[in-house]
């Protein structure tokens, strides 16, 4: 089997937006629905054991990403050329629908079943899935914490970062659930790193994956998670959802010093996918900036890893890389279910992880409160300033200085608009973010109480 992942997941009792059944079940633009079955150990044939998966961040921001049309065309051509090497393809940052249409058209012979996800305010989450096998159902779950509307120049809040689910029917009529995501990016140290938001997204995604596994699906989590292997995000997938990192499962956990390695060694030994000097868009970055941000996680009780490698590293005509990230591919071998292959995680390890997460939430709550208060103060101060400016207009008119009155009115309009917008962000978004943090804190406390009872 071959899998190329484009964000997706299934089976969780969350808001879902699955495609409506269509009359032509062979259509390439709609999902085909199949009768429900559970995974049986005796139905995996010797000829249907392999599942090949690819995930790739395409860097497809309109008007922002450099040489986007050229690069997306190259990605389409390479997928069409290498289509026999994958069964499922997962893509991130495909924010222009015409780019996805181009990819879908080029690869229709290899991947007749596709799903593009639309949820979001402006461009959608940029997630897509291509599959050799029928997509039974699909939905998208928007993350509860997802950046701030004030950071419009970053765009995470406006595109609606999400986890996308696609439930794919394997030729044996059993289900593979793909969960594809592009988590919030870190933009700098401190508050600009968005560590709390990103970890909250991992918490939601890990619980969805766990429910999918419990429902009997072969669950595969993939995407640009914007997190390093040692992060709390990575721990949540491994310790709470009991998934395995395909790269580490095959190559082991990397503990070396990336700054002392060549770019080639960084890829071969550490699985680096971002900020590699071999990537034309990051060629000037220090060796120490190289990192692994793109992942494929899987349920080890139902599959083993035969191969995991960094993909899409070749440059196209003109000498540029197809994206600012490299892709990741993995080959899995399906096995009869054996839960003993799940990693053994002690209650002490989980408690420590939850305590670390709670400390992160507590710290960020202070930041959230401060930001909301500053915005609300700005709104109230703007009211006083606008009143003062309007009074000043009267004095300017009394002295027959019309141009001064115009300046005061223009200033009053600008201050009123910015004050109202900031007040709305401070009150509406501030309350929304705080309640999301309180909910997250409550869920973590509940998880700790349940551990204490074991």
TrEMBL record:
Pathway: Sphingolipid metabolism; Lipid metabolism; sphingolipid metabolism
Hydrolase recorded as keyword: yes
PANTHER family the UniProt entry points to: PHOSPHODIESTERASE, PUTATIVE-RELATED, SPHINGOMYELINASE FAMILY MEMBER
Keyword Nucleotidyltransferase: no
Domain of life assignment: Eukaryota
InterPro entries: Endo/exonu/phosph_ase_sf, Endo/exonuclease/phosphatase, Sph/SMPD2-like
Name of a matching Pfam family: Exo_endo_phos
Species of the source: Yarrowia lipolytica
Keyword annotations from UniProtKB, A to Z: Endonuclease, Exonuclease, Hydrolase, Lipid metabolism, Magnesium, Membrane, Metal-binding, Nuclease, Sphingolipid metabolism, Transmembrane, Transmembrane helix
Membrane topology summary: Multi-pass membrane protein
Transmembrane segments: 377-397, 403-429
SUPFAM superfamilies in UniProt: DNase I-like (SSF56219)
Principal subcellular localization: membrane
Endonuclease/exonuclease/phosphatase domain location: 54-325
GO biological process: sphingolipid metabolic process
Record family assignment: Belongs to the neutral sphingomyelinase family.
GO molecular function: endonuclease activity; exonuclease activity; metal ion binding; sphingomyelin phosphodiesterase activity
GO cellular component: membrane
Protein name: Endonuclease/exonuclease/phosphatase
Compartment annotation: Membrane
